[in-house]
Write a structure and sequence with these properties.
Elements (H helix, E strand, L loop, with lengths): L5 E6 L2 H12 L7 E9 L4 H14 L5 E4 L7 E5 L6 E5 L5 H18 L9 E9 L2 E9 L7 H17 L13 H8 L3 H11 L34 H13 L4 H17 L3 E8 L18 E8 L6 H16 L6 H6 L1
Parallel strand pairs: 5-6
Antiparallel strand pairs: 1-4, 2-7, 3-4, 6-7, 8-9
């Protein structure tokens, strides 16, 4: 690592620290390798596409970041002045659609297993597979430690705006991006003593995790085995519309309704009237100007406590839950590890 290529050095956010730990603990799990794949149709100008992605990497410091931890008391993230994002190209035009899909599935799996060396940027890779004269499969792989879901459309919006300009022989001016280190600086100014008081009061008297034993009890020795999976289910449009109408009618957010439903499910399966579960929050502080257009990892995972009161009407109970969630918002910066210790 050349010192002349270092632009900035600063600490990690709490979520970044957690992701780094789990990535080093199980480097081949691929659990934090994020992937986006889609088909680009039309006469793709590959040089303009490559140039657009490189301009976005040049604009956003977080996309030029690596992490250092060896022989250090505190893990740090390092922003490099110059980083080139790789773009792999393959030609699949001689393959049938079924063969192309099989190749894509294998490629995505291989990319997840390959992962990233967090000490060497960039922590992202691009790939273009040409499947027809006017079609390419595009794959963007990156480590979650850099970006949250909010950031993805911001980056893609810039890439395609720049691409359109470059393919027409023009340049495009974009306002300077506010760097991720401004959020880290904001984090360091927060009052952890105030957060500690809030979480101690919120979680007072709760000492054991809420069990979710659905089809069989957890056997001895299984409690610490880690396993990952994704189960996706789509509600019918009519059900979604009904839930949205319910939320609007009673001035609730759909998030409150969903979290309330999850709390009731935990109550039914665990038999506990007082449950705690983890919820992911956006973590973007409203008092940080321009935070809605910043690129980086802002999310956090925090506990939500729900006391089930069968005698309370459900709408009233949901309103109380929503008020509790609103109160939690000002402490979204709280490190989960410390919340557990408090």
């Amino acid at each position: 690592m050349s010192k002349r290529n270092i632009e900035a050095v600063y600490p990690l956010s709490p979520m970044q620290q957690g992701m780094l730990f789990h990535s080093l603990y199980a480097p081949e799990s691929g659990v934090y390798v994020e992937q986006l794949s889609c088909t680009l149709r039309g006469d793709l100008d590959v040089p303009a596409f490559r140039r657009a992605w490189q301009r976005v990497v040049d604009r956003h410091a977080v996309l030029r970041t690596s992490f250092v931890w060896k022989q250090l008391d505190k893990t740090l993230q390092v922003v490099h002045r110059q980083v080139t994002i790789p773009l792999e190209q393959q030609d699949w035009r001689g393959l049938s659609p079924a063969q192309q899909q099989a190749r894509l599935d294998a490629f995505l799996q291989q990319e997840r297993r390959r992962g990233f060396d967090l000490s060497h940027p960039p922590l992202a890779r691009l790939a273009l597979m040409r499947t027809a004269e006017d079609a390419h499969i595009f794959v963007w792989s990156h480590h979650h430690i850099l970006l949250d879901g909010w950031s993805l459309p911001l980056i893609l919006g810039e890439v395609f705006a720049l691409y359109e300009a470059f393919r027409q022989g023009r340049d495009l001016y974009l306002k300077p991006a506010r760097p991720y280190r401004d959020y880290i600086a904001w984090l360091q100014r927060q009052d952890l003593a105030e957060a500690e008081a809030f979480w101690r009061e919120t979680l007072a008297g709760f000492t054991a995790p809420t069990p979710l034993v659905v089809d069989r009890p957890v056997e001895a020795g299984e409690a610490h085995k880690e396993a990952y999976g994704v189960l996706e289910s789509h509600l019918p449009a009519t059900t979604t519309a009904t839930l949205q109408a319910l939320a609007r009618q009673h001035r609730l957010t759909l998030s409150t309704v969903v979290q309330g439903a999850w709390a009731l499910l935990l109550n039914r399966y665990s038999g506990e009237d007082d449950v705690v579960f983890g919820a992911t929050v956006s973590g973007r502080p409203p008092d940080l100007p321009g935070v809605e257009t910043m690129v980086g990892l802002f999310i956090n995972t925090l506990p939500v406590r729900a006391r089930i009161r069968p005698e309370t009407p459900v709408v009233e109970w949901l309103r109380r839950l929503q008020a509790q969630l609103a109160a939690m918002r000002q402490y979204e910066y709280s490190p989960l590890v410390q919340v557990q210790e408090w």
